[in-house]
Amino acid sequence: MIAPRNTPAPTRPRAEVDEIAAVVDAVRVAAPLTQCLTNSVVTGFTANVLLAVGASPAMVDSLEEGPIFADIADGLLINVGTVNAMTVDSMLATAAAREDAGRTWCLDPVAVGALPVRTALARDLLEHRPSVVRGNASEVLGLVGETGAGRGVDAGDDVDSALDVAAALAARTGGAVAVSGEVDAVVATDTPTLRIANGHPIMTKVTGVGCALGAMVAAYLPVARTPHLAAAAATAALTVAADDAAYRASGPGSFAVELLDALARVDAEAVAANLDLR
Amino acid sequence: MIAPRNTPAPTRPRAEVDEIAAVVDAVRVAAPLTQCLTNSVVTGFTANVLLAVGASPAMVDSLEEGPIFADIADGLLINVGTVNAMTVDSMLATAAAREDAGRTWCLDPVAVGALPVRTALARDLLEHRPSVVRGNASEVLGLVGETGAGRGVDAGDDVDSALDVAAALAARTGGAVAVSGEVDAVVATDTPTLRIANGHPIMTKVTGVGCALGAMVAAYLPVARTPHLAAAAATAALTVAADDAAYRASGPGSFAVELLDALARVDAEAVAANLDLR
Amino acid sequence: MIAPRNTPAPTRPRAEVDEIAAVVDAVRVAAPLTQCLTNSVVTGFTANVLLAVGASPAMVDSLEEGPIFADIADGLLINVGTVNAMTVDSMLATAAAREDAGRTWCLDPVAVGALPVRTALARDLLEHRPSVVRGNASEVLGLVGETGAGRGVDAGDDVDSALDVAAALAARTGGAVAVSGEVDAVVATDTPTLRIANGHPIMTKVTGVGCALGAMVAAYLPVARTPHLAAAAATAALTVAADDAAYRASGPGSFAVELLDALARVDAEAVAANLDLR
Predict the structure, then answer these.
(1) pLDDT digit string (tens) for A111-128?
(2) Where are the domains of chain B?
(3) Does residue C235 have a pLDDT over 90?
(4) Do C207 and A57 touch (CB under 8 A)?
(5) Longest Cα pair distance anywhere in chain C, in angstroms?
(6) Spatial distance between the Cα atoms of B106 and B88, rounded to a whole number of angstroms
(7) Sequence-distant (≥ 6) Cβ neighbours of residue C124 within 8 angstroms
């Protein structure tokens, strides 16, 4: 793991950085079985990201098996990127089963706000209290009915514009909200908002990098002390690995390959040394 | 962008080459939001190709959201590679919405002719007047009921054998028909047939390269002056990039990676310098 | 093709090794059209593996087209990795059509035993007499109702613990059973059990490597003299290629790329020189 291109200038206490970094190693030890109900574009890449960070992916997403597996899996991701009538039922039943079991899960509201079916679905899913909501600023705004500037998966809004709404969302779910952007933010009720300034623009040129972060949050949740810490650690591991991968890559194709290799290498030491936490 | 292995010997006017090449840069400026209803094998690769060439992919493909998004998206691809009862309805409704809006779209009739459900579907879709039909010779023949030699996605027929049928199709839709093969051809009613001799056999050893061309055509349509020009520019960008990628690759795995890197680099200058237009 | 890291110590007759190796070249000559009804995570990777080994993939998986195509395709894979109500019907109808036609097919019982819908489905599919069943030890045990230690796709049991059950399964289907693990085993009724000790732990860090083996078995079946030989040759080609790829790779991302390149190179000579058959 080489030095990233943007040299970190930590402005947060060292203990905070170290606690975040420690989660990255703990996930490799625990190897959490992580169930994903995700969109059809990113299933393979998501599974490979989870394997690289030490989790065990399981794309059990049907109405018939999803809710049952939600009782078995350590982690759960629900990502509404390509919903239809069939997947809506499966996602709602699985989230309900998960809430009943009192266990963590992560909601990724892809393109919510811009499209009606997924927007209604994501709001219904919110009632099942996701531990972490992870999205870009437009998606976070769309989730609560603010009219953002997003079209499809592109954020038309910046991270800071969504922080108040993110805080309100966190108060409502009792969990954390991770807002992705040029500088990522993680918001929760009883904790200062964290900002992570690692990462590289080429991350937006590979499909599923944001979705992979949602899956990583789902895998980190059963291992981390709080949802806030899980979201921060997953964001840290992904963006520190991305800095390294971007340095080695010649374009988006090789970046995706290098990112998986870097995610398989990234550990507490690399995160502690390179995290630009603000 | 290095010189391709087959040195071009342009036999068409320089202005024609330059007009095609200019579209490649224009797409990067416009960043067209490109909706894809495509097959389950190639969703991720298609999205990555669109990102690499400067478009913004959105795989909004359900019956509930597809037709609505067809009004928002700049470009639209419908690819019948893995259809079932649910996707048939979604594709027909989305194509109808697109035609009503008077906007461009690209039809990719994967394996049409060889299989009944998709053949009937593709013929129904044809009624909604796709701006470009893109397929191999067997698929183009299958679309109008000619019995070709194709089995599945493999062309059993050569490009020249499909040119008359392609011209008849173009007359019927008022758009263009792009026939993929060893030398690609682009056919339209009021324009001479173009042939593009770039490209490499290894393109047939990676799944979804043909499907990616269909998606690129969909993204180039809202930017180019005519469907014929969109199809020619997309074919040019893909095959010039493929020449470069094939030169760098050690096999089909590394070719797919190099192709995405090359597509992210390819521009008007590279196309103008390397296009073998006949 | 360089020497693998685990130098082979063949303990089986040279003629046996050579017969297995010869199938790898024969598949490239025959280019079998291979139909896959597989899970949504691995469709693209599976198609790329089939192309690399010289087969022609066709993911024709709907209820409407699957059974028809089963009469056309040379090979057939049914993998139950992400089943739902719709795919259950399609898989059963396609397997029935294949059995009626008296042709070979491969069943991959992903995560069977751990989840109810796929377990019932896989047992129903077994009635249609798959030529080869390919799974890990937990999946093979789960198929016949033994309570294994598997959770999701991870094997909790070792290969030897499943050999008696595999032999009983082979007797029931009249075909072969391939049990994947650290050392793979291929079991059939009238043939000694073969063990193949090639391969590398990083194969478990890329999603779909096991599923790709199932697809390779499906492609090798119409070419090989017996199901046992098809399973052995597919396992040999994959694991010899994986040894080479693991040597070249820097992590799971580059391993997946190198594996496709190595599969495109692997031939009878490389298998004969490197196979660790026991």
Answers:
(1) 998 898 999 999 999 999
(2) 14-273
(3) yes
(4) yes
(5) 49
(6) 16
(7) C92
Structure tokens at C12: 């089986």
Q: What single DSSP character describes residue A159?
A: G
Size of interface A-C (CB pairs under 8 A): 102
C145 class by beta-carbon count within 10 Å (0-12 exposed, 13-18 middle, 19+ buried) = exposed
- For chain A, 278 residues long, the average pLDDT of each consecutive 10-residue run is 56 93 98 97 97 97 96 97 92 98 97 92 97 96 79 74 96 97 95 96 97 98 98 98 98 98 98 96
DSSP state of A35: E
Q: From residue A87, how far is each of A130, A140, A264, C186 by CA, in Å?
A: 18, 21, 31, 38
Residue B94 in tokens: 């989305």
| Chain B residues touching residue A256 (CB < 8 angstroms) | 48, 257, 260
pLDDT score, position C114: 83
Residues B69 and B58: beta-carbon distance below 8 Å: yes
The answer to whether the CB atoms of B152 and C62 lie below 8 A apart is no
Q: Which residue of A has its CA nearest to C203?
A: A51
Residues found in chain A: 278
CA separation for the pair A7, A22 (Å, rounded): 21
Does the distance separating the beta carbons of C260 and B207 come in below 8 Å? no
CATH class in words for B14-273: alpha beta
How far is it, in rounded angstroms, from Cα A189 to Cα A168? Answer: 9
The Cα B114–Cα C161 span in angstroms is 45
Indicate the pairing of strand B184-188 with strand B56-58.
unpaired
Helices (H), C207-251: 209-220, 227-248
What's the CATH superfamily of C32-266? Ribokinase (3.40.1190.20)
Q: Report, at the CATH architecture level, how domain A14-191+202-273 is classified.
A: 3-Layer(aba) Sandwich (3.40)
**How many percent of chain B have pLDDT more than 70?**
93
CA–CA separation, C6 and C181 (whole Å): 16
How many other CB atoms are there within 10 angstroms of residue A247's CB atom? 15
- State whether ipTM is beyond 0.90: yes
Q: Are C249 and C231 in contact (CB under 8 A)?
A: no
How many residues are listed for chain B in this entry?
Answer: 278
The C-alpha angle with vertex A17 and arms to A11 and A21, in degrees rounded to 5, equals 150
Question: Average pLDDT for residues C160-187, to the nearest whole number?
Answer: 96
Tokens 């002390």 found at:
A225
Q: Please name which of A33, A25, A16 lies closest in space to residue A193, comparing C-alpha atoms.
A: A16
